[in-house]
Amino acid sequence: MVGIVLISHSKGLAEGAAELAGQIAGGARVFPAGGTDDGRLGTSTELIGAAITAADTGDGVLLIPDLGSAVLSARSVLAELDPEHGGKRIMLVDAPFIEGAVAAAVAASGGLDLEMVASAAEEARDARKL
Amino acid sequence: MPANSEPQHTTNTAQHVTDLAERVVILPKHLHARPAGQVAQAAARHQATTIELVSGNRRADARSVLAVMALGAVTGGEVRVIVAGPDATVVANDIVGLLERPDTDE
């Protein structure tokens, strides 16, 4: 199953979003990577790397960042990891944080592949709430 | 496709059979996030099958959990389940089952 890592500046936001996505998409593998190493607001390449390792079962991992510098941190982790290492693929996707996490988690738990899970997250941008 | 106004019919092509199925569910509970997720998970497992939910004047591709949630379908409301593709009847029954017996705590 494709794993999902939610990268947020806030530990609480990442954990809450992962909890919500995991509840809606029972069985999904959603891992939070929020805040700095000591729990302050910010992002941590170490936490992101650890979440990727936890999420990775060999079917790929999708990274969903919340805002600007979460993207920078994710990119620096990817640069060190080599996204194609061992045939395991890791993708960073441009998607709304909550809606993208929920849509991706449902797609992943339904058994879709990494590209389709990424598409589900991206399409969340066009979904209207009202 | 043959001209056929029956609600359920079968079209034979060289390689496969396309079934159509349509069912109506009266929701026992609001269509909350978790049942919407279950419907979308089921839809994801049937990639070759098109599954659409209709509630009032809104339509949702069942594969999109966000679209299903945005139907805003409430208790007692009617949801039409329209399925086209392989095993349409079985898939429709699965979706109807999830809508009629949501495993949810709100």
- What is the average of the pLDDT values of chain A? 94
Strand content of chain B: 25-35%
Largest beta-sheet characterization of chain A: 4 strands, parallel
Number of domains of chain B: 1
Describe the structure.
The complex is a heterodimer of chains A (130) and B (106). By secondary structure, chain A is α/β, with parallel strands linked by helices. Chain A has a single domain, classed as Phosphotransferase system, mannose-type IIA component (Rossmann fold). Helices cover 48% and strands 15% of the residues of chain A. Chain A has five helices and four strands. Chain A has helices at residues 11-24, 45-55, 68-81, 97-109, 114-123; strands spanning 3-8, 29-34, 61-65, 90-92. Chain A has a four-stranded parallel β-sheet with strand order 2-1-3-4, sandwiched between helices. The longest helix of chain A has 14 residues, at 11-24. Chain A is globular, with a radius of gyration of 13 Å. The N and C termini of chain A lie far apart (31 Å). The model of chain A has no long low-confidence stretch (mean pLDDT 94). Chain B is of the alpha+beta class and 106 residues long. Chain B has a single domain, classed as HPr-like (Histidine-containing Protein, Chain: A, 2-Layer Sandwich). Chain B has three helices and five strands. Chain B has helices at residues 33-44, 65-69, 88-100, and strands at 10-12, 17-26, 50-55, 58-61, 78-85. In chain B, helix 1 (33-44) runs antiparallel to helix 3. Chain B is globular, with a radius of gyration of 14 Å. Chain A binds chain B through residues 20, 23-26, 99, 102-103, 106-107, 109-112, 120, 123-124, 127-130, and chain B through 33-34, 36-38, 40-45, 47, 63-67, 70.
